[in-house]
Fold:
Amino acid sequence: MAFLGIFGKKSEGGPLRKHAERVANKRAQAYDRWESIQALTQLRTREAVEALLPRFTFYVEPSITDQEEKDAAFAGIVDAGAVGAEPVVAFLKRADSISWPLKMLDKIVAADAVVGYLLDLLNGMDTEYARDTESKIQILSTLAERKDARVADAVARFLSDTNESARFAAVGAIIGQEAVAAHRTALVNALALEDSVRVRNRIFEALATAGLSVEPEQERVKTRLTPNYSLDAKFIPRKKG
Structure:
């Protein structure tokens, strides 16, 4: 693995390389892997953080061992502080799931910096078909929970994503930023083209809550009404019942 290249120094390469290889090895003996995790967590260096991160790429049985090892590696990375930020961001960019690296970043850098890293990652993602969309959906869902002036504009293009879950999450992110009024036109246009009932319901709910009209697209929107919503005389969505 590429990260092992950092352990080439004669003075420290041997022990660090050994521990890094153990931590990254799913088939290593659990007690050996635990010993190496403990050794690396004491170093609190960038190199140690890089060696600990691969532990979050696999699962071992029993589940209690897996959780204990990950918790210990997590604590070691967090204890390393700011020196771990760069390797954690690099790991975030290549990870299948953003959950663990996001938790780490929340502990070692400022909240606005975390949002910035997520937006940089999102900026490199497309709205066209992709085999794996999990990271994109996770990022959009996470951004919905974090208030930042940059978010709404960044997620708006995903209202037309080919993936339904990504579109649903994009609407949620705009709602989460309380930016429905600012992006009313984009939401109404998306609504007029949307096939998914749950996405349409989410947009209708957002517009209804904000008291926003769908004009001048009311005729197109009428064809997209769901059983839960109607338009009033001012073409503002209203929930039935």
Notes: DSSP finds 13 helices and two strands in the chain. The two ends are 59 Å apart (CA to CA).
